[in-house]
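Q: Could you fold this chain for me?
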Amino acid sequence: MQELRFDDVAALRARVGEAFSPYGQAVEIAQERIQQFADVTLDHQWIHLDVARAQRESPLGATIAHGFLILSLLPALRQRPDLRIIGHGSVLNYGADKLRFLSPVPAGSQVKARCRIVAAEPKARGVLVSEEIEVAVVRPDGTVADKPALVYTMLLLYQP
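A: Sure. Below is the predicted structure, expressed as structure tokens.
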């Protein structure tokens, strides 16, 4: 695993344009987790919660996770096995440049993510790193689906 200091902007920029990192650890998207998310967000649409109706009426034949549930799991999913940014005192979620939900995540499936740095910019209060994250559904054979479930450009402000 490579370690880069958060304030080494040249080294961070040198990683821009590289291929995605290897995938991190998978996280299971159990129906219970979907239910808990629905209760917190008050989003109780049948496609997420009504298993019998989803089996009858959904083209997938199953309930699906909320897109924002998958997004909310990024702190756990975006752990990179190939790179660690070090030397900072804190990291702030600075926002997003792009978010797309491209394919559904059926209940009971697993997801995992991979990342790549797309920009690094010095700021008065630290270094702003833009990271593109792809979340994929894991097939039963352990491979990932061809189309990602989610693509997100996350902005992270690393501070001393």
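A (continued): The chain has a mean pLDDT of 95.
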